[in-house]
Every structure is written in C-alpha cells, then in structure tokens.
Specification:
98 residues
C-alpha cells in the first residue's frame, strides 16, 4: 500500500506546472530581438500575451515559428511587464530586418 501512495503523490507532483520564481521582483521583458521566434517564446513566461507583426508589412501569419526571427520588440528589454502585451516584429529567417 505504501508504494501505491508514494507513486500517486509522485504522479501528482509531475502534473503540477512549473512556475519560475521571481525573487528579484516583477517580471521584466527579456532581450529577444535578434533571436529566432522559438527561443524568444521560450524566454517569455507561458502566460505572456504576445502579438506578432510582419516586419515586411505584408500581413503574413506565422504558421511555423521556427522559420521566423524577431527583428524588434515592444516593450524594450528591462521594462516591467506586469500583464502588458508584448509585440514582436518578425520576418522569415532568410530575410533581413529593416
């Protein structure tokens, strides 16, 4: 019986989502301009609202994030997020940022 209880408790801990600790105050916007879109997403908390803007002005939609890179960001790095929406200006990896 003890093994079943231990396994159940372990299984429950595996289901709890990991939340990063913020010992140094509120979350701040990381520097993501110049990175691929996938690492940029990884640098942000899972609950951050992100809007993507086509850097070419063509209104393209991002269907495959790994094929895109970030040219600009708003807010700037170091700005407290506190529930703010993040806007990332992106282009395809083979394109240059203007």
């Amino acid at each position: 019986m003890k093994r079943i209880v231990t396994a159940s408790v372990l299984a429950l801990f595996c289901l709890v989502p990991a939340v990063p600790a913020h010992a140094d105050g509120p979350e701040k916007m990381p520097q993501v301009a110049g990175q691929g879109l996938v690492p940029a997403y990884a640098a942000l908390r899972y609950d951050t609202s992100v809007q993507l803007t086509d850097g070419r002005g063509a209104g393209r939609h991002v269907l495959w994030p790994a094929a895109w890179k970030v040219c600009a960001q708003n807010p700037q790095a170091g700005t407290p997020l506190q529930g703010r929406r993040v806007t990332l200006t992106v282009v395809k990896r083979e394109e240059s940022c203007r």
